[in-house]
Design a protein that fits this description.
This protein is α/β, with parallel strands linked by helices. The strands form 2 sheets. A 7-stranded mixed β-sheet has the order 3-2-1-4-7-9-10, sandwiched between helices. It folds into 2 domains: 79 residues, Four Helix Bundle (Hemerythrin (Met), subunit A) (Up-down Bundle); 163 residues, Rossmann fold, CATH 3.40.50.10470. Helix content is 38%, strand content 17%. The chain has 11 helices and 10 strands. A hairpin with a 3-residue loop joins strand 5 and strand 6.
Length: 265
């Protein structure tokens, strides 16, 4: 993929990518494999890329898996394969119910995972909610599906007809999740109107408590995220499909690496 590009140049390319790039973590795994023969440089490279994308849960998962492995290069390749083969979107799309006339699926944090879920579900009317921490217009311009999605504000009356509320998480811990700023206000606006609220994760998004706490503590003072209890959601959507929050957060495949528990600076 990279030809004669050096590992440092690969890493710089990754750090310049947008934090909402859903392929960022897989690209980082590929780039970090180039540092696998130099343990000290690998630690520095992981910390450098995390410093540029502090809220990206899957990136913390990638770096933790690589640094904890006896063979970092193999771990990087395995992580990239798992990310590229993530079936969260497909399973989410298969699980979305048939809606009654006039009902909608409301989405906070429109992502490629949600886009994949809607790919074949032209029977669903979807609305993307604009909040302080996320303007879905950029993500909608990048989407692969032809599904019509209307952008609305958090006060729009259409949310009273939301049968499902989908919220994309940047990172998920055992008790709380990092979501776009303004999500809580949307959940209050929807109230009991939505039959269920689903938190959308994916490969690498569910992290152990100590790693999740580092994600949150590493955020700059001015950031576009808020924390919300995972218990406010009926289900968490991941590569295994829909799970109850307790079941989803009990299955954590991310090691805790001391090198990543120090402030990023």
């Amino acid at each position: 993929m990279w030809g004669e590009v050096t590992p440092a140049e690969r890493l710089r390319s990754v750090t310049r990518r947008s934090v909402d790039d859903d392929h960022l973590a897989a690209a980082a795994a590929d780039a970090l494999a180039g540092f696998s023969d130099e343990p000290a440089s690998l630690v520095v490279a992981c910390r450098r890329v995390l410093a540029h994308h502090r809220a990206h849960g899957s990136l913390w998962w990638v770096c933790s898996r690589i640094l904890a492995a006896a063979d970092p290069a193999s771990a990087a390749r395995a992580a990239a394969r798992e990310l590229e083969a993530d079936r969260t979107g497909d399973r989410l799309g298969a699980t979305l119910p048939l809606l009654d006339e006039g009902e909608v699926v409301a989405i906070v944090g429109y992502s490629s995972t949600v886009d994949d879920a809607l790919m074949e579900r032209f029977d669903i009317e979807a609305v993307a909610v604009r909040v302080d921490g996320d303007d879905p217009m950029a993500a909608l311009r990048r989407r692969r599906s032809d599904h019509a999605v209307r952008v609305v504000d958090a006060w729009d009356p259409v949310l009273e007809r939301a049968a499902r509320l989908l919220v994309a998480a940047s990172a998920i811990g055992p008790e709380r999740a990092l979501v776009p700023l303004g999500t809580g206000a949307v959940m209050e606006a929807v109230g009991g109107g939505a039959r269920e609220a689903w938190l959308v994760g994916g490969v690498g998004r569910v992290l152990p408590a100590r790693v999740y706490e580092m994600v949150v503590s590493s955020l700059p003072p001015e950031h576009a995220y808020e924390e919300i209890s995972v218990q406010r959601f009926d289900r968490i959507a991941g590569p295994r499909g829909l799970e109850r929050p307790h079941d989803a957060t009990a299955r954590i495949d991310c090691p805790v690496v001391p090198e990543l528990l120090r402030p990023l600076g």
